[in-house]
Design brief:
Largest sheet of chain A: 4 strands, antiparallel
Strand order of the largest sheet of chain A: 1-2-5-6
Oligomer: heterodimer
Strand content of chain A: 25-35%
Radius of gyration of chain A: 28 Å
Largest interface: A-B, 54 and 58 residues
Shape of chain B: elongated
Distance between the termini of chain B: 72 Å
Number of helices of chain B: 5
Structural class of chain B: alpha/beta
Helix content of chain A: 40-55%
Number of domains of chain A: 1
Radius of gyration of chain B: 32 Å
Number of strands of chain B: 41
Largest sheet of chain B: 14 strands, mixed
Distance between the termini of chain A: 87 Å
Strand content of chain B: 25-35%
Helix content of chain B: 10-25%
Chain lengths: ~150, ~600
Amino acid sequence: MKYNKGLTFAELLTTIAIVSCIIISISAFFARGLIAVKKNQALLPGYDLAKGRIEQIRRCSYDTLIASYLPSPKEVKIFQNGITYNMEVNTEVIYRPEISGTSNDGRSLLRVTVNVQWEAIKEQGKKNITLQTYIYTDPLVFPVSPL
Amino acid sequence: MYKSASKKGIALISVLLILTVLVMFIVAYGTLITGSQTNASTYSGRIILQELAEAGLGKALYELNKNPEWASGTPYERVEEDLSDVRGRFLITFDPNEDYCSINNLTKPTSTSRSSKPGGNVPPYTAEIIIKASLVESNGSIKGSRYYAIQLVRGDFFDKHVSSEGPIIIRNLYKYMDTGTSDRGGAIHSNYNDEDDEKPAIKLLSESSLMEICLGSIRKKGIISSPGLIHKGPNVVLDSPSTVDPPLEKSSATPKGDLDINELISRGVAESSPVPVAPGEYKIEREAVYSGGDGLETMVFDHYTYKITHNGAEYNLNDHDSWARIDPDSGDFIIEKDIYVKPPSHPIPGHNHDIFRINFTYDDRKTRTGSDSPAIQSPQRPVAEGETVYEGPVNSNIPVVLFKDPNVIPDSYPTVFSRCKVEFINSSPSISSDPSVDSVVAPLMGTGAIICEKDLKAGIQKNHGALVLMSCEDINLEAIFEENITFSGFLYAKDDLHIVPSLAVDSWRPPDIGVEAPALTAPLTMYSGDINPDDNALDDPNNPVSLDINLPYRWITFENYSGYLKLIDEATKYNYAFPVKVKCYYEI
């Protein structure tokens, strides 16, 4: 009977040892998973911020764009979800509006590059994403809208 | 022995159980993490691809707004640009032999079909741009691609017959009919929204008789919409029993593109080299010439002679590049060429340089027996697919006619570009029944365009042609209802637009029982921009009006007409860079 009880305790120890080994061996996997989640938690808002800024620029008239974003780059700091995002907006005029006398046709094409940089996890260092697009501005009083 | 053996296996079972739970946990965790990674990767990839597609759209919009005919012909345009900072690229091809080709149909009155993928038709006066956005690996291979289709429409195309940025008043009609298109009912829309919610944006009123508004059918619901108040008077009935009641709806504002009339004038003038015409009043007088006989009693009418004075001085049309002529039989004033009316840089004292006025001093329009003036016998009228063609001889009061002989200049219509007010009147002593009125409007007929920087005033009467009338300020039209009127075209006033009864006709009374009152058939689009809300014709600050349709006892029937787009194109010599707007955007 005593022999049997001892065996059970040994078995328990063995079980704990085996499970511990397994847990320790896969803990790196869990850690990586958590880091990935944390990384995504910072990445997706980064894209949203960049896209949001591009949409904001898209609604501006040419004059506003020139006044606000030139000379490039323009840097902005945004604090969100406990992370500080450094946003850099580069604006380059591809086609300028045609100016005839005092009138300005307002039509222009700009290349806008938004770079967002942040540091969510110290071990990973700084991360950055870039969005780039062309933006057409037209002389309409109203922004372009669906009919 | 049996019991002891059972206890011995407990470690294995425990380990297996714990491992099972652990494996399940790990699998679930792994799935979640992998899913999260995949989602993040897909999301970021999609955002980059969307911005690449937006870049392509920006490029296309820039080109189309500069030149609406961009990429509409051969050689086929192919735009492929790399955006190196995101390792992406967009491609737009107009080659019909390639799959996913774009089609620019913005200036074409007929639809264009696509034989390659993804098939389908691009309707007249629209464009479909298909953009292939791709992510590129560092070695140049394509990592992933998506196709985006964007439907573009012309900013000068209005999908409603009656729309306004300011208040609309429709009053005293017998019937207002707008049954819409094949897929939707008619519509009246105003963007006016009084801050105090006191002044209506749309008023439907009838002082005495019943006014019926028909906007829909059983299948298609019409709509009267505005973000502001909509007021329906007691004598107004919505729809006949055979149709569904259109709802009076509050909706969000749907702003229209702002057409740049000044630019239209500048471009048109630069492109067509119109005949320069001095502003002021062109007064036309007529005298009968008789022949034969020995005395006055036996003299026989032979012909008319016409005399024109410009600001009181004798004026000979032939001396001024013959921009117009007077039809010797009828007395019509026919504008044959593109003209540009501009105040002189050195004004002459005493001369009125703010107006371009044609003033008839005779009111009996004579025609040879059995034939009308060729100018208005069958006015040319551009039509798009599926539109009604109106034909037939037209009689009228003495009109100003926009007309080019199609045998001489086919597919061409005259345009009046004016930096001054434009006014067509008749000051014949006998034309008005009201002695206090010294002149009434003269009708405008034919096919062409008047694009002016100031007010425009004219009459409408029995016109089977088509007219584009655009003004930076007001458009005042008076309907001369001696018979049915068919008025096609486009009325675009930056400020106010009024269609009211003419003083020349004194029959603004209920029709006799059993007699049908003259009607207005209107393949017409009208828009008022109301840029000056403090100025309106009713001159009542509590009753602002931007678009006024007041045709007592008359029946107005709206029909669809897209041909006015071709008219505008032609009027500005296909150099008209109309705004191009995005209608919808989707991923294929």
